[in-house]
Amino acid sequence: MRILLAEDDSGIAGHVASSLEREGYRVDVLSTGPEVWEQGETEDYAAIVLDLGLPGLDGLSILKRWRSTGVETPVLVLTARGSWMERVDGFDAGADDYLPKPFRTEELSARLRALLRRSRKNKAGTKSANRFTLDEQSRRITFDGRELDLTPLEYRMMSLFIDNPDVVLSPIELASQVQGRDDDAAKNAVEAMIARLRKKTDSEAIETRRGFGYVLPGKRP
Ligand code: CA
Known about the structure:
Blueprint lengths: L1 E5 L3 H13 L3 E5 L2 H10 L4 E5 L7 H10 L6 E5 L4 H9 L4 E4 L4 H19 L2 E4 L2 E4 L4 E4 L2 E2 L4 H12 L7 H9 L4 H17 L6 E3 L3 E3 L6
Parallel strand pairs: 1-2, 1-3, 3-4, 4-5
Antiparallel strand pairs: 6-7, 7-8, 8-9, 10-11
Helix pairs in contact: 2-3, 6-7, 7-8
Bound molecules: calcium ion (CA).
Calcium ion binds next to loops.
Protein backbone atom coordinates (compact mmCIF):
# COMPACT_ATOMS: atom_id res chain seq x y z
CA MET A 1 0.00 0.00 0.00
CA ARG A 2 1.35 3.41 -0.99
CA ILE A 3 1.57 6.18 1.58
CA LEU A 4 2.61 9.80 1.07
CA LEU A 5 4.58 11.17 4.00
CA ALA A 6 4.74 14.97 3.85
CA GLU A 7 7.24 16.09 6.47
CA ASP A 8 10.08 18.62 6.21
CA ASP A 9 11.88 17.52 9.39
CA SER A 10 14.26 14.98 7.89
CA GLY A 11 14.84 13.30 11.25
CA ILE A 12 11.14 12.61 11.79
CA ALA A 13 10.58 11.76 8.11
CA GLY A 14 13.40 9.20 8.03
CA HIS A 15 12.34 7.60 11.27
CA VAL A 16 8.65 7.35 10.34
CA ALA A 17 9.35 6.22 6.76
CA SER A 18 11.64 3.38 7.80
CA SER A 19 9.22 2.20 10.45
CA LEU A 20 6.28 2.22 7.98
CA GLU A 21 8.39 0.47 5.37
CA ARG A 22 9.20 -2.24 7.89
CA GLU A 23 5.44 -2.75 8.20
CA GLY A 24 5.19 -3.26 4.46
CA TYR A 25 4.00 0.13 3.20
CA ARG A 26 5.59 1.83 0.22
CA VAL A 27 6.39 5.33 1.43
CA ASP A 28 7.04 8.45 -0.67
CA VAL A 29 8.59 11.24 1.40
CA LEU A 30 8.18 14.85 0.27
CA SER A 31 9.28 17.93 2.19
CA THR A 32 7.96 21.04 0.46
CA GLY A 33 4.36 22.29 0.30
CA PRO A 34 3.93 22.76 -3.47
CA GLU A 35 5.25 19.30 -4.36
CA VAL A 36 3.11 17.69 -1.65
CA TRP A 37 0.04 19.43 -3.00
CA GLU A 38 0.73 18.41 -6.58
CA GLN A 39 1.70 14.83 -5.89
CA GLY A 40 -1.19 14.28 -3.47
CA GLU A 41 -3.55 15.38 -6.20
CA THR A 42 -2.06 13.44 -9.09
CA GLU A 43 -0.86 10.19 -7.49
CA ASP A 44 -3.02 7.49 -6.00
CA TYR A 45 -2.19 6.99 -2.31
CA ALA A 46 -3.98 4.79 0.23
CA ALA A 47 -3.38 7.53 2.83
CA ILE A 48 -1.41 10.72 3.36
CA VAL A 49 0.45 11.71 6.53
CA LEU A 50 0.57 15.51 6.41
CA ASP A 51 2.70 17.80 8.55
CA LEU A 52 0.97 21.18 8.89
CA GLY A 53 4.18 23.22 8.96
CA LEU A 54 5.64 22.74 5.49
CA PRO A 55 7.78 25.27 3.59
CA GLY A 56 6.26 26.96 0.55
CA LEU A 57 2.62 26.09 1.23
CA ASP A 58 1.24 25.12 4.63
CA GLY A 59 -0.49 21.80 5.24
CA LEU A 60 -3.93 23.26 6.01
CA SER A 61 -4.02 25.13 2.69
CA ILE A 62 -2.90 22.00 0.86
CA LEU A 63 -5.62 19.95 2.54
CA LYS A 64 -8.32 22.51 1.72
CA ARG A 65 -7.21 22.58 -1.91
CA TRP A 66 -7.29 18.79 -2.14
CA ARG A 67 -10.75 18.57 -0.63
CA SER A 68 -12.08 21.34 -2.86
CA THR A 69 -10.86 19.48 -5.95
CA GLY A 70 -12.34 16.15 -4.87
CA VAL A 71 -9.21 14.41 -3.52
CA GLU A 72 -10.71 12.00 -0.97
CA THR A 73 -7.54 10.24 0.18
CA PRO A 74 -7.65 9.79 3.97
CA VAL A 75 -5.33 12.32 5.64
CA LEU A 76 -3.65 12.03 9.04
CA VAL A 77 -2.47 15.46 10.12
CA LEU A 78 0.70 16.01 12.17
CA THR A 79 1.36 19.21 14.02
CA ALA A 80 4.00 20.54 16.37
CA ARG A 81 1.61 22.88 18.06
CA GLY A 82 -1.48 20.82 18.75
CA SER A 83 -3.62 23.77 19.72
CA TRP A 84 -7.37 23.49 20.00
CA MET A 85 -8.07 25.87 17.13
CA GLU A 86 -5.62 24.13 14.88
CA ARG A 87 -7.34 20.80 15.47
CA VAL A 88 -10.73 22.25 14.69
CA ASP A 89 -9.32 23.97 11.59
CA GLY A 90 -7.73 20.69 10.55
CA PHE A 91 -10.99 18.76 10.79
CA ASP A 92 -12.88 21.57 9.08
CA ALA A 93 -10.32 21.47 6.29
CA GLY A 94 -11.03 17.75 5.82
CA ALA A 95 -8.49 15.91 8.00
CA ASP A 96 -9.53 12.38 8.99
CA ASP A 97 -7.34 12.16 12.07
CA TYR A 98 -4.89 14.21 14.04
CA LEU A 99 -1.64 13.45 15.83
CA PRO A 100 0.25 16.06 17.88
CA LYS A 101 4.04 16.00 17.96
CA PRO A 102 5.98 14.53 19.58
CA PHE A 103 4.44 11.12 18.94
CA ARG A 104 5.62 7.53 19.05
CA THR A 105 5.86 5.81 15.69
CA GLU A 106 3.74 2.97 17.14
CA GLU A 107 0.98 5.51 17.77
CA LEU A 108 1.24 6.83 14.23
CA SER A 109 1.08 3.39 12.67
CA ALA A 110 -1.91 2.41 14.84
CA ARG A 111 -3.76 5.57 13.74
CA LEU A 112 -2.82 4.91 10.15
CA ARG A 113 -4.11 1.33 10.31
CA ALA A 114 -7.41 2.56 11.76
CA LEU A 115 -7.66 5.17 9.03
CA LEU A 116 -7.05 2.62 6.28
CA ARG A 117 -9.55 0.23 7.84
CA ARG A 118 -12.19 2.95 7.93
CA SER A 119 -11.45 3.97 4.39
CA ARG A 120 -11.72 0.37 3.10
CA LYS A 121 -15.00 -0.05 4.94
CA ASN A 122 -16.22 3.23 3.53
CA LYS A 123 -15.55 2.11 -0.01
CA ALA A 124 -18.08 -0.66 0.56
CA GLY A 125 -20.81 1.99 0.29
CA THR A 126 -23.35 3.17 2.78
CA LYS A 127 -23.95 2.31 6.42
CA SER A 128 -27.22 2.56 8.24
CA ALA A 129 -28.20 2.68 11.88
CA ASN A 130 -31.63 3.48 13.21
CA ARG A 131 -33.08 6.26 11.05
CA PHE A 132 -29.65 7.40 9.80
CA THR A 133 -27.82 6.45 6.62
CA LEU A 134 -24.27 7.53 5.96
CA ASP A 135 -22.64 7.69 2.55
CA GLU A 136 -18.89 8.00 3.07
CA GLN A 137 -18.09 8.69 -0.56
CA SER A 138 -20.18 11.82 -0.67
CA ARG A 139 -19.81 12.45 3.10
CA ARG A 140 -23.57 12.79 3.45
CA ILE A 141 -25.83 11.64 6.23
CA THR A 142 -29.56 11.34 5.86
CA PHE A 143 -32.20 11.06 8.57
CA ASP A 144 -35.45 9.38 7.47
CA GLY A 145 -34.19 9.94 3.94
CA ARG A 146 -33.72 13.67 4.44
CA GLU A 147 -30.18 14.97 3.93
CA LEU A 148 -28.76 16.66 7.03
CA ASP A 149 -26.85 19.92 6.84
CA LEU A 150 -23.91 19.15 9.14
CA THR A 151 -20.65 20.89 10.00
CA PRO A 152 -17.53 18.72 9.58
CA LEU A 153 -17.36 18.12 13.34
CA GLU A 154 -21.05 17.22 13.54
CA TYR A 155 -20.53 14.85 10.64
CA ARG A 156 -17.58 13.31 12.46
CA MET A 157 -19.61 12.80 15.62
CA MET A 158 -22.64 11.43 13.80
CA SER A 159 -20.47 8.96 11.88
CA LEU A 160 -19.02 7.72 15.19
CA PHE A 161 -22.54 6.95 16.41
CA ILE A 162 -23.47 5.28 13.14
CA ASP A 163 -20.26 3.19 13.26
CA ASN A 164 -21.05 2.14 16.84
CA PRO A 165 -24.78 1.51 17.14
CA ASP A 166 -25.99 0.46 20.61
CA VAL A 167 -22.62 1.45 22.09
CA VAL A 168 -22.74 4.04 24.88
CA LEU A 169 -20.11 6.66 24.05
CA SER A 170 -18.89 8.70 27.01
CA PRO A 171 -18.41 12.47 26.75
CA ILE A 172 -14.64 11.93 27.19
CA GLU A 173 -14.51 9.44 24.35
CA LEU A 174 -16.59 11.65 22.07
CA ALA A 175 -14.49 14.69 22.93
CA SER A 176 -11.21 12.94 22.19
CA GLN A 177 -12.49 11.33 18.97
CA VAL A 178 -14.33 14.37 17.66
CA GLN A 179 -12.42 17.33 19.07
CA GLY A 180 -9.02 15.70 19.45
CA ARG A 181 -8.86 16.44 23.19
CA ASP A 182 -10.85 15.53 26.26
CA ASP A 183 -10.71 18.49 28.65
CA ASP A 184 -13.81 20.20 30.09
CA ALA A 185 -14.11 22.66 27.21
CA ALA A 186 -14.13 19.80 24.72
CA LYS A 187 -16.71 17.87 26.75
CA ASN A 188 -18.94 20.97 26.87
CA ALA A 189 -18.54 21.36 23.12
CA VAL A 190 -19.62 17.73 22.71
CA GLU A 191 -22.78 18.33 24.74
CA ALA A 192 -23.61 21.42 22.71
CA MET A 193 -23.07 19.44 19.53
CA ILE A 194 -25.41 16.65 20.70
CA ALA A 195 -28.08 19.28 21.38
CA ARG A 196 -27.62 20.70 17.87
CA LEU A 197 -27.78 17.24 16.30
CA ARG A 198 -31.02 16.52 18.14
CA LYS A 199 -32.44 19.80 16.88
CA LYS A 200 -31.49 18.89 13.32
CA THR A 201 -33.02 15.41 13.62
CA ASP A 202 -35.25 14.39 16.50
CA SER A 203 -34.98 15.04 20.24
CA GLU A 204 -34.95 11.26 20.76
CA ALA A 205 -32.53 10.45 17.96
CA ILE A 206 -29.51 10.20 20.24
CA GLU A 207 -30.36 8.90 23.68
CA THR A 208 -28.78 9.99 26.95
CA ARG A 209 -27.60 7.36 29.43
CA ARG A 210 -27.32 9.50 32.51
CA GLY A 211 -23.88 9.22 34.12
CA PHE A 212 -22.51 7.18 31.20
CA GLY A 213 -22.93 9.05 27.94
CA TYR A 214 -24.89 8.88 24.72
CA VAL A 215 -26.10 6.08 22.49
CA LEU A 216 -27.62 5.65 19.06
CA PRO A 217 -29.89 2.59 19.24
CA GLY A 218 -29.16 0.40 16.22
CA LYS A 219 -32.80 -0.50 15.55
CA ARG A 220 -35.53 1.89 14.60
CA PRO A 221 -37.80 2.78 17.51
CA1 CA B 1 7.32 20.98 9.78
